[in-house]
Amino acid sequence: MSAKMRAGDWLLIILLALLWGISFFLTEICLRDLGPTTLACGRVGFAALALLGIAAIRGQRFPTALADWGALAVMGLINNALPFSLIMWGQTRIDSGLASILNATTPLFTFVLAHMLTRDERMTRQGTLGVTVGFLGAVVLIGPSALTGLGADSWAQIAVLAAALFYALSGIFGRRLRHLDPVVAAAGMTGAATVILLPAALMVDQPWAFRPTADTWLALLVLSTVSTGGAYIIYFKVLASAGATNLLLVTFLIPIAALILGSTALGEEITLTALAGMALIFLGLAVIDGRLPAVLTRLKHRTRGRRTRSTNLP
User: pTM (2 decimals)?
Assistant: First the structure.
């Protein structure tokens, strides 16, 4: 695994999970009136405008090196344009529960790819156990019944899995942008993604034919500014401090965020199965974090010490 997580990193990851947790709900609203490619373009386009405005207010300068802009363009492609389009298209054919489970494979992909492509984020038995337990927790929380949809629309499921793979690759690739301010990096990435997606949206969806309602515009505004612009500022901040493997553990927390938001905003009941899934996710994260195994090891050593002293007594 990568660098040990600090308390501040965990708090930012929880906040990121909340911001991305509402994105599935907002996407469902927007897809009623907009095509998936148009929605993806609008999401990154409005996010880029908001981020550019923040950068201008703060007086921040954008990079001048071609290498930085090339990296931002690649990030815009593999972290925004491709995964957003794939997930949004997938959600037109499969329900959000199955999409969430498939999206929760991101840390699994990241774990393996980071081991293969980096030197400082290697696979360990502890990390493997933690990621496995966390993924099982996501399946239990969302509900194993969601897995009954597997095979119903294979291409949609492959699309969401491909998006998870792109997220994993972008987390590893994005490490080369750690020297940039998070606002600048997020603005450059979403701006590049907008340039990539705009021609595709015009050719594929013909967006001038859509008639979005006020609810759709509001959902798109929140999706782009809060769940995209604000979220990616946090994304680049955590990526720089905690690494790709730790950062993308956020996908385990997204179902929990969605569950809590559904309970508080929509009055949905939290079942015992959901609580069990949450417990498994937290257990997996605790194993990955390293603090729980360290505590258990200390307790084991203390117990052994007490037994040794007791056997040596006359």
Answer: 0.80
